[in-house]
């Protein structure tokens, strides 16, 4: 058993087990007394997965599926209501704040909107140096060279040209490159990328995706890649988890999941993604309704009110993830029909 | 209503100029094109290419100091450019209606759905009677796939897709000829978006309305448009039947854009095409063809002169020197067969 634990810790950089995050709904005092108990938004409601070292793990889902909250929990920006998050074998909710701060050097973030991520009054050079000042104060003399070298790596060339510029003076694609540079300057192991290219134009997206893949290989990074766009995930992720209303619906190797989607929700999502070819227009109908309220999620399987193959049992018993194909788990009672 | 396929809107030489601190910026620069009755025309382009400006300019919705100029803008034979303020007020909403990206900010949060619809009719029909008119509203709303008991709902009680359909309904109750959708599905989740795409196609068929769909999402346009126009830096660079444009893009920008779209199909090539550079700033547009600094097929002439927007086949217009003659051009002009 002990042996097993050890090898797991070596294989996995991030281990997430039974993770829950419930946000209390703000109400007036009178409502609280009348309602009797506090209501919660169940943003994440029992999610488990591991991320191997050097892998790009994708979390995909619609708005309200809990993907961003899981990302924030994974790097300790939120505290879990229940469940554990381990980073390199260390349970991050159990260590003192000071320790967590040190650990943060190894986990960095890239957010969606680069303009909101960069301080408009700081030059690009000083924004990126900030991480070095905090985590590598001893090597102060080398900071400038380190920043220039990372600028070069992310394609901000010539680096000196960008060093003293402000965020508003450069283009959107270049700004996201600065944010990537800032994430990588502390030499992290894990990079959380929350919709990193959603704001970029199509012609710039491909450049940024390519850069992220290239940097991952060069710096031996592990990615937690959060996206609402399944098509984008294809170009960067090794494995993918599909979330629905705070639960994992399906998880596995990306090519396996995309090639043989087993959950009715994943199947609908995949069919819904528009394809840039008018001769291949989708003909099958889409499931009814929209993603329900996470305060009172549907009983049993959360997808059952919208599911085209739901049966009576689906509203009673909540399905658990089970492995139906090698490296491919699905939380659906009746997924066998799609094998 | 007249026959499908005839011209609904004929725009010639339209320019829209914003006056900014950095000087005048022409977000739409000498554009000419047609919209045919009953079609779904998709207008795609990246942010800042002028596609939203164009949508607003079609309703002359850009107040001074922004300037809209055009040789003419014929809507059903009448030149909108010559309309007075009063004529425009009647024209907007009744002949052309517009829906935006976020329906929550377009609908009044303290007005019920039926109040929205009644108001839309009353503005254009002063002698409209509420009690008899309700039948008309109910019929239309049912065709849009909204149950009539939803008429008493407020916008926040509706789902995102339903709100967008109410917005479409505001145009349809007045029998608008053209509905302009500016990123109508962008704020929706992908399954709801797909459903709205289906519904918009049905609405076109049921009501015979013409749709202009403005989007940055080229795959979405491929899903629904009959014809597609591609915009780059204030110009339409290619226009044609959707099937033909996607099968055989002629302009190098269209070609690159199509290759750069992530595709969910696994059998596709794994490499995304990486277009060089980024879209230009329109306050200082590149000389000649505005795409030349990023174009893999650029000729010496491309940086000197701007190509015309010309027919290369009956149904395809392209703005590119590859397909046009010029005395200074040394390479042969490409011929395209339909």
Short description:
The complex is a heterodimer of chains A (339) and B (338). By secondary structure, chain A is of the alpha/beta class. Chain A has helices at 2-11, 29-35, 67-74, 97-103, 114-117, 124-135, 143-153, 159-163, 172-184, 202-219, 230-233, 254-259, 264-272; strands at 12-24, 40-52, 56-60, 82-87, 90-91, 107-110, 190-194, 222-227, 239-244, 247-253, 322-325, 328-330.
Description of the structure:
The complex is a heterodimer of chains A (339) and B (338). Chain A is of the alpha/beta class and 339 residues long. Chain A has 13 helices and twelve strands. Chain A has helices spanning 2-11, 29-35, 67-74, 97-103, 114-117, 124-135, 143-153, 159-163, 172-184, 202-219, 230-233, 254-259, 264-272; strands at residues 12-24, 40-52, 56-60, 82-87, 90-91, 107-110, 190-194, 222-227, 239-244, 247-253, 322-325, 328-330. In chain A, the strands form two sheets. An eight-stranded mixed sheet of chain A has the order 6-7-8-3-9-10-12-11, with helices on both faces. In chain A, helix 6 (124-135) crosses helix 7 (143-153), helix 6 runs parallel beside helix 9 and helix 9 (172-184) runs parallel beside helix 10 (202-219). The two termini of chain A are 33 Å apart. In chain B, the strands form two sheets. An eight-stranded mixed sheet of chain B has the order 7-8-9-3-10-11-13-12, with helices on both faces. In chain B, a hairpin with a 2-residue loop joins strand 5 (72-75) and strand 6 (78-79). At the A-B interface, helix 9, helix 10, helix 11, helix 12 and helix 13 of A face helix 7, helix 8, helix 9 and helix 10 of B.
């Amino acid at each position: 058993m002990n042996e097993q634990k050890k090898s797991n810790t070596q294989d996995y950089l991030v281990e997430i087990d039974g993770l829950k995050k419930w946000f209390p709904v703000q109400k007036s005092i009178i409502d609280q007394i009348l309602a009797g108990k506090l209501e919660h938004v169940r943003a994440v409601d029992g999610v488990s997965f591991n991320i191997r070292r050097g892998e790009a793990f994708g979390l995909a889902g619609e708005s309200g599926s809990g993907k961003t909250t899981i990302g924030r929990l994974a790097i300790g920006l939120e505290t879990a209501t229940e469940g554990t998050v381990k980073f390199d074998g260390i349970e991050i909710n159990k260590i003192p704040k000071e320790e967590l701060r040190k650990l943060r050097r190894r986990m960095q973030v890239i957010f969606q909107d680069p303009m909101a991520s960069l301080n408009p009054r700081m030059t690009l050079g000083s924004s990126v140096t900030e991480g070095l000042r905090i985590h590598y104060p001893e090597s102060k003399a080398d900071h400038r060279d380190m920043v220039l070298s990372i600028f070069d790596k992310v394609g901000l060339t010539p680096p000196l040209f960008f060093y003293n510029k402000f965020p508003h003076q450069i283009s959107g694609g270049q700004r996201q490159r600065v944010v990537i540079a800032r994430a990588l300057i502390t030499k992290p192991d894990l990079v959380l990328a929350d919709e990193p290219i959603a704001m970029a134009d199509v012609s710039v997206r491909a450049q940024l995706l390519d850069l992220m893949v290239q940097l991952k290989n060069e710096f031996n990074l592990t990615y937690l890649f959060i996206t609402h766009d399944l098509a984008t995930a294809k170009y960067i992720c090794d494995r993918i988890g599909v979330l629905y209303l705070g639960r994992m619906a399906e998880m596995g190797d990306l090519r396996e999941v995309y090639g043989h989607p087993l959950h009715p929700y994943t199947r609908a999502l995949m069919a819904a993604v528009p394809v840039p070819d008018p001769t291949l227009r989708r003909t099958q109908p889409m499931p009814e309704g929209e993603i329900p309220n996470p305060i009172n999620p549907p009983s049993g399987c959360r997808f059952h009110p919208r599911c085209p193959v739901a049966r009576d049992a689906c509203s009673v018993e909540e399905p658990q993830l089970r492995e139906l194909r090698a490296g491919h788990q699905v939380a659906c009672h009746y997924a066998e029909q799609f094998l | 209503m007249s026959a499908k396929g005839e011209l609904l809107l004929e725009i010639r030489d339209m320019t829209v100029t914003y006056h900014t601190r950095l000087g005048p910026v022409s977000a739409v620069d000498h554009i000419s094109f047609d919209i045919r009755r009953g079609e779904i025309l998709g207008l795609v382009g990246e942010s800042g290419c002028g596609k939203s400006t164009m949508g607003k300019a079609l309703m002359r919705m850009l107040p001074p100091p922004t300037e809209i100029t055009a040789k003419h803008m014929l809507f059903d034979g009448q030149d909108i450019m010559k309309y007075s303020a009063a004529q425009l007020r009647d024209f907007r909403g009744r002949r052309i209606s517009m829906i935006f990206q976020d329906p929550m900010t377009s609908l009044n949060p303290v007005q019920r759905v039926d109040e929205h619809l009644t108001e839309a009719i009353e503005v254009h029909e002063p002698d409209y009677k509420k009690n008899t008119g309700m039948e008309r509203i109910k019929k239309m709303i049912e065709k849009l796939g909204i149950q009539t008991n939803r008429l008493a709902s407020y916008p926040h009680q509706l789902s995102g897709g339903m709100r967008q359909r109410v917005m479409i309904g505001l145009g349809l109750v007045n029998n608008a000829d053209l509905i302009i959708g500016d990123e109508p599905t962008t704020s929706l989740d992908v399954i709801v978006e797909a459903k709205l795409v289906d519904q918009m196609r049905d609405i076109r068929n049921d009501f015979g309305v013409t749709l202009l769909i403005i989007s940055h999402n080229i795959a979405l346009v491929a899903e629904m448009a009959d014809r597609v126009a591609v915009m780059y830096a204030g110009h339409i660079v290619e226009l044609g039947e959707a099937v033909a444009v996607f099968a055989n893009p002629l302009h190098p920008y269209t070609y690159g854009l199509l290759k750069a779209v992530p595709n969910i199909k696994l059998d596709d090539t794994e490499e995304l095409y990486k277009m060089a550079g980024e879209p230009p700033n329109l306050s200082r547009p590149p000389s000649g063809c505005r795409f030349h600094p990023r174009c893999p097929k650029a000729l010496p002439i491309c940086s000197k002169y701007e190509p015309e927007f010309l027919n290369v086949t009956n149904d395809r217009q392209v703005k590119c020197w590859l397909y046009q003659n010029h005395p200074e051009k040394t390479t042969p002009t490409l011929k395209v067969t339909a």
